[in-house]
Design brief:
The protein is α/β, with parallel strands linked by helices. It has three domains: 68 residues, 2,3-Dihydroxybiphenyl 1,2-Dioxygenase, domain 1 (Roll), CATH 3.10.180; 51 residues, 2,3-Dihydroxybiphenyl 1,2-Dioxygenase, domain 1 (Roll); 29 residues, no CATH class. Helices cover 25% and strands 32% of the residues. The protein has a four-stranded mixed β-sheet with strand order 1-4-3-2, with helices on one face. Strands 5-8-7-6 form a four-stranded mixed β-sheet, with helices on one face. A hairpin with a 3-residue loop joins strand 6 and strand 7. It is globular, with a radius of gyration of 19 Å. Keywords: Aromatic hydrocarbons catabolism, Dioxygenase, Iron, Metal-binding, Oxidoreductase.
C-alpha cells in the first residue's frame, strides 16, 4: 500500500526549550547553525488555545531546519522518566572522521562533556547534551555500499524476529565489532 502523495523532505523538527535566546545562541556557537526566523503568538494557530510561545528556527545546512518552542505559561519542561536519556536525541551528520574529531575538540573546548567517538558499524558518532537536556549526536558515515545493501536485506528479517521474540536479532552483529578496538 502506498500513500497518494510523496514527501519531499522534513520541513522542520521541533523540540521544546527552556529559553529561546539561550538555545539559539548555544546552537549557533556550538554547532554553527544559522538562526533564520521566529514566530510568536499568544494563541496557538492550530487550536486557538491561549498559550503564548516563541518558536525559533535554525538552519542546520542541507535544507534541514531545527526549531524550538519556548512555552512560559506551561509547567517547567522535563523528560519522560520512563525513557532512558540516550534514546531520544537529535543526530546531525558531519563530513568525515576528521570533522567529527574537530567537532569533539571544539565542543569539549567550550566545557561541554562529550561521549565518543562510538562505533556503529556504518558510522561513528559523538554525544553531548544541549542546555535544555536534549541529547545531541554528531555522526560521520563510514559504511561501504555492501554494508548498506546487507542492512537493507536483513531489515525485514530483523523486524519480524523482534516482533515475535522482543530479543535482539543477530543478523547485523558485525555492526558492533569495531575493527579499530584494542
Amino acid at each position: 500500500m502506498t500513500a497518494p502523495f510523496a514527501l519531499s523532505r522534513i520541513h522542520h523538527v521541533a523540540y521544546r526549550c527552556k529559553d529561546a535566546k539561550q538555545t539559539v545562541e548555544w546552537y549557533e556557537k556550538v554547532l554553527g547553525m544559522t538562526y533564520t526566523s521566529a514566530f510568536s503568538e499568544d494563541h496557538v494557530p492550530s487550536t486557538g488555545a491561549y498559550d503564548p510561545y516563541m518558536h525559533v528556527f535554525l538552519d542546520c545546512g542541507g535544507g534541514n531546519v531545527l526549531a524550538f518552542f519556548e512555552l512560559p505559561q506551561q509547567p517547567e519542561m522535563g523528560r519522560d522518566a520512563n525513557t532512558p536519556e540516550w534514546v531520544q536525541h537529535i543526530a546531525f551528520e558531519v563530513r568525515d572522521m576528521d570533522a567529527l574529531l574537530a567537532a569533539k575538540a571544539h565542543i569539549e573546548g567550550l566545557g561541554i562533556d562529550v561521549l565518543g567517538p562510538t562505533f556503529h558499524g556504518i558510522f561513528r558518532s559523538i554525544y553531548f547534551f544541549d542546555p535544555n537536556g536534549h541529547r545531541v549526536e554528531l555522526a560521520c558515515n563510514i559504511g561501504k555500499p555492501e554494508h548498506y545493501e546487507e542492512l537493507k536485506r536483513v531489515a525485514p528479517l530483523m523486524l519480524d524476529e523482534w516482533s515475535r521474540t522482543k530479543k535482539a536479532p543477530r543478523h547485523a552483529d558485525w555492526l558492533h565489532k569495531d575493527p579499530d578496538a584494542a
